[in-house]
Amino acid sequence: MHELDEPFDRRLRRGLQSLAATHTAPSSASVLEAAIRTRRRRRRRPTLLSAAVALVVALLGAVAVLALNGEDTSPVVTEGRSSVPGMVATGLPVGWEQTWVEHLPWSGEDWRDSEERTIVLADSSSLDARRVVTVHIATTTEDEEPRSGTVTRSGDRELTVSELDDWTEVSFRDPESERRVVVASASEPSTTLVDLAGRFDVRTLTLGDPLDGMAVVYDGPTPPLQRREPVGHVGIYYSHAGVDARSPGGPADGSGFGVDVAPGPDAGLIGLAARIPFERRQVVDIGERRVLIEKLGDSSWTAHWQERPDLWVRGWGTNLPEEMFLSLLGSLQLVSPTEWWEVANRAGATPPYGPTGSEVEVGRGTVPDGRSWAVVVREHRSAVGGARDQACLLIETTVVEDSCLAHASGPHPVDLPDVGEAGGVRIAYGYASADIATVEVRLTDETTRSVLTQQGIAAPQDRWYAIELPEGTAVKQIQALDSEGNVLGRVTDGTA
Amino acid sequence: MEVSQVEQTLRDSYERVLATVTLLVGDDGTAQDAVQEAVVKLLDAEDVRNPSAWLVTVALNIARAGHRRRAAERRAVARLETQRPVADASDGVDVEVGRALALLTERQREIVVLHYLAELTVAEVGDAVGLATGTVKATLFQARRRLRSILEGVADSAEDSDARAR
Question: Which residues are paired to A395 by β-bridges?
């Protein structure tokens, strides 16, 4: 059965073995010993645990009865939010809200192949306390075998409570859809999970076409705000896969859609991107709009609207269906950052930044299946320092509220450069944070892939750096160094 | 399974199983935890025909589930950027194979590692990844061709035949 007779196969096998050999591991004897100990411990545990859970369930039942009979003690039931077709979280306890939903593809896996979907529940009143619970709904009925644990009941559900070393899971099988549901948390006690699991309403889930994914609300991670001059910058990002878009070069293994609005060095640009199978340079009519889309690289695009030649689109790697991309391109409200801020100021924001929490809708449209989307910008304070702005692309406006949570973003000292032309010279340019003294750029010959040269460039005062790219070269790696030569950041082949 | 049988299985194939899971999961700690958990399950399992293949399959399932759930919570809490270390060339390590492997699709990579490193048969690979034997064969063929194209510069001339096959 094995085809290991050819030299190539032997090399492949040896190569894999050599890669595997770099990992250290405990001995097989110690693994067996630990496994036997674990099994013994688990076999002892259920008696105590089941008693505790039974007690908790009984108490919860009593509380529920009191709530039903009392006047002011009834729990505040949050409104179910339909952020995934067919899935509604209802009856969540006070404070708990369904914040976002995401597909969880295995690294590199197409999100459409994802076997699970996850709802993240967060106690919105105490996000700082990191009260987060994830709810995983398998999208196939042939799920992994359930974990062993204590069986208890909540309502008409039979729940399995599994206490792991650093993790607690409460699982059940939804009788209607036959999907296995796992409510899990590293922070919450099993009592909370049992409570949540008993309340959760699971309806039929299907993995549909890519547009289904667009129904998933994702409070996109803080987009690459540090990549551009902060004044007036707005960046938003939407990802099916929940991939962090801050990686320079974009989410290499996630599909998504990004809008990047920033004045940058050329005041007035709107960025919007998706990797779609266009030819290198193509004019597309979208409704009444004519858009020129130009491919810069494998995952880099620009688009220009005929009606607004002062605005242009820049892009990073994504995998949106062409139809979706065109729809969004065609329906995006075309405003320059300057205009955008005028809108924001009219809405009451204090220039150049609005007060924390100010919110302005800058775009709205409808996707081909009839659902609507909106771009809402909210101002918030960044941990990096100074005011930053954040925006969310919201699909299905019914879930606009609370789906865009402020969060801090880490320092990002250097950005993979974009490649462009200035005065007829091909250049690579990017953004470096203020504490960068030098940006070193390694170039490779595109034919031989060998490293050609290494350059040191002092980042200019405006924090943008630029280097000339000799003919036939590509950027291989850049490093950001402080004044003492310490490497503050490194970007290699598109990966930070 | 009897402890003695599990012990024998581990003696024969533990390193291979762990290496396979580690390569596919990409993280030593997660892989070790997953294999450890799989061994616990193996102790309670019955009618296991190929214990090492069983271990790989179960460990991968565990690793995936755990990884996904933990990753979801991590994102929920902090949304910190994941930074994977850049692989450096080390003595005796075929970095080229590693890089070539990284250029495969996740499914191709998984099947290649399961077949070549874990030494699972095509049928066993199919069981492990939930694919039909024919699909595994086709994927393995495509992956091997792609690897060869990358590592030896052999032209990937079979695209046409692929297209015809479709």
Answer: A373
